[in-house]
Specification:
Shape: globular
Strand content: 25-35%
Structural class: alpha+beta
Oligomer: single chain
């Protein structure tokens, strides 16, 4: 399932239109809210960012991956679910190189999450 999360970082980052902030709205994928939060934490960890807390997690109203503009930013969603959505862009005349770049980017993000999950699991609580 897709969850909408509000994440608070330990450090301030520049987040595009948000400017400098410690608060990020993000989407996570998981069997439950805890799994989605863990996937987002792992993604941020892979980027060298530490999460202070997650203040809210709600099931996203939209569960259809095809309805998302950036499905590759649903952190933790497996490639076998995201790649067909990205490939469908070709039917809407998206350039092949752009679609391939997004697929490779998502694979790298997913692999980074998997590696970070192992690292986070090895850290004693």
């Amino acid at each position: 399932m897709i969850y909408f999360l509000t994440i608070y970082l330990q450090q301030e980052v520049h987040a595009g239109c948000l400017g400098f902030t410690k608060t990020l709205p993000m989407y996570g994928w998981g069997s439950d809210a805890d799994a989605a939060i863990l996937a987002v934490r792992a993604h941020l960890h892979s980027q060298g960012l530490a999460v202070e807390k997650c203040s809210s997690s709600t099931v996203a109203k939209q569960q259809d991956l095809n309805r998302y503009t950036f499905p590759e930013q649903i952190y933790g969603a497996p490639p076998e679910l995201i790649e067909p959505v990205l490939r469908a862009r070709l039917e809407r005349d998206w350039p092949l190189d752009m679609v391939e770049k997004d697929i490779l980017k998502h694979r790298a993000i997913y692999q980074g999450i998997q590696k970070s999950l192992q690292e986070l699991a090895a850290v004693p609580a």
